[in-house]
Specification:
By secondary structure, the protein is α/β, with parallel strands linked by helices. The protein folds into two domains: 60 residues, Orthogonal Bundle (Helix Hairpins), CATH 1.10.287; 225 residues, 3-Layer(aba) Sandwich (Pyruvate Kinase, Chain: A, domain 1). 59% of the residues lie in helices and 11% in strands. It is built from five helices and four strands. Strands 2-1-3-4 form a four-stranded mixed β-sheet, with helices on both faces. Strand 1, helix 2 and strand 2 form a beta-alpha-beta unit.
Length: 295
């Protein structure tokens, strides 16, 4: 049976650990709220870009882009896949990282020809340790910015334009609510034209006046799509970061609850031993008093 001193030390140790996990919970909560606010603030801009792409495709039927599948194209699994994987820099976030890696391995196992672009030290360490070749891609998942998303987009589109990758995928985490995170595997490029179809659009509202495009129709579309892809990456980065912090919040919340339960059990054991010692002392005093009385 442990002594009261040992139990007291364990109680203090668990209490100190709880202070750390509680601080981590509060920090994660603050970061998640800030990231979600930043994402919401950018929605109008990227929604407007998609709306413009839709408008062009509705009004100029011959509009085309290197980022679209050709008309009547039969999709195949040929070519090099570019796979962007978003993990965190550190652990202590429940199953957040392992779920992303599992989803990535599914895509990797289904297609032998691929290039991996990993964001986050956790994912980089995992794939390097297991012998996977990773492209030089030095970006952090912490506090993502729109400028970082544009840099990532420019680097990947350059490889796509040069034919080094034929399809572009992103694997990230989507925050559904405070208790649920979903791992997403999404193909970004090339787009099917119907991706931008507006089925609810009223045909009578289609602009029939001639639109002038400078320097050319295709260059305007390509520029809009590049900005739109940057928006997709920014949304995925922020969503993943929010999911990471939410997962860390839940992990720290569980740790706090476990710490409370452990402290309660240890305190009960401490009080039990302490009460036994007090009882023993009372018995000894009582026995001594009786012995003196007999004498």
């Amino acid at each position: 049976m442990p002594s009261t001193r040992e139990l007291k030390l364990r109680i203090n140790s668990v209490s100190d650990t709880k202070k750390i996990t509680n601080a981590m919970y509060l920090i994660a909560s603050t970061k998640m709220k800030k990231a979600k606010e930043n994402l919401v603030n950018t929605y109008p801009y990227f929604t407007a870009i998609r709306r413009e792409i839709k408008r062009i495709l509705r009004t100029v039927k011959e509009a085309d882009s290197k980022y679209f599948y050709p008309v009547n194209y039969e999709e195949t699994n040929k070519g090099t896949y570019g796979i962007v994987i978003i993990t965190s820099d550190k652990g202590l976030a429940g199953a957040y990282n392992s779920n992303v890696i599992k989803e990535a391995l599914k895509l990797i196992n289904d297609h032998d020809d691929y290039k991996l672009f990993v964001i986050g030290n956790y994912g980089k360490n995992y794939f390097s340790r297991h012998g996977y070749e990773i492209e030089d891609f030095d970006y952090s998942p912490e506090d993502p910015t729109i400028d970082e998303a544009r840099d990532i987009t420019a680097e990947l589109l350059d490889k796509y334009d040069k034919g080094k990758i034929s399809k572009l995928f992103i694997i990230y985490s989507n925050l559904i609510n405070s208790f649920s995170v979903e791992t997403m595997s999404m193909r970004i490029l090339p787009f099917h034209r119907h991706y931008f179809d507006d089925k609810k659009a009223d045909e009578e509202k289609v602009i029939k006046n001639r639109i002038e495009f400078y320097p050319s129709l295709n260059e305007v579309i390509d520029s809009l799509i590049e900005s739109y892809v940057a928006g997709i990456f920014y949304g995925a980065l922020v969503d993943s970061f929010s999911s990471e912090e939410n997962s860390r919040m839940n992990a720290m919340s569980t740790a706090n609850k476990n710490a409370d339960e452990l402290i309660e059990d240890l305190s009960r054991e401490y009080n039990k031993i302490r009460q036994m010692k007090i009882t023993e002392e009372i018995i000894e005093i009582s026995a001594g008093a009786k012995a003196l009385k007999k004498e």
